[in-house]
Amino acid sequence: MKAFAEAPGKVIISGEHFVVHGATALVAAIGRGTKVEASRGEGLTLETPINKNRAAGSALLPVEKVVTEMYRERSLEPRVRLRMSTSLPTGAGLGSSASSMVATVAAVNRLEGWNMDANSLIETSMLGERLVHGKPSGVDVAASVFGGLMEFRMGAEPRQVPLEKPAKFVVVYSGKRRNSGRLISKVSSMKELYPALFSKLCESASLVTELSTERLVTGRMEELGRIMTYNHAVLAMVGASNEQLDKLVDLCLREGCLGAKLTGAGGGGSVLALAPGGEESAVAARIGRRGFEAFVTEVPIGGVRVWTSER
After folding, report:
1. Which among 128, 187, 241, 275 could disulfide-bond with 62, CB atoms 3.0 to 4.6 Å apart, if both were Cys?
2. pLDDT digit string (tens) for 288-304?
């Protein structure tokens, strides 16, 4: 038997960085993600498009450490072969590591019949996220597990945000990878230097999320676009952006987008843009001709999917 799992990536519409400090974020699963196939094997083997068969004795990757821990907790030795494929660029602020963790944990769980619930799936996936990012908020994993459009705050149950009709966003990858843990530390250092200001920024981030949610739900897209662009300016002020991302936001606006901002940790990674309704694909194509990877995603998108095959 083979077990399969496919978990989506994510975009943060509002609240990145400040969500680590208690602010509310608005996050959406996207139509790109990671697929993992799990089958019986000798020991633990991970195959990816980049590294088909890793040499014996190689240092374990975070995802392999998580799988090893899953078996260790049950006093078992792993005997599983994992094949992973993804449509997400790594280090792009689109939740690639969370997507990989969730898909892997879900596939192994189905193969072994362990019946882990959603909370267990999240807790186990977070083991790997901490290895990658240090002290992540958990927003990426929650979006990958549950999918949809949700408001997320650390320590609280995510709140799904219903939409009467799907919304579309343009995602543009800058082509530059970034280190989320390093950027989180960089922005967090501002809390130590200017604690009162940082506290007000966290409050403001939650308000921006509230306003963004309300505009998206009611279809007031021009206002949502302006909020997104304002949001980028704030993130740039606290050190999350860089010259390349600022120029990419400007490019999106020149191409007719209603608003644009960095999404995720920043410092590279990706920009999320809101184009006028019906023009999303045309805008993505024009930006693509400038040499950037750009695609359209619809929200809401479902969370992790799991299935089995006897072949």
Report:
1. 128
2. 999 999 999 999 999 99
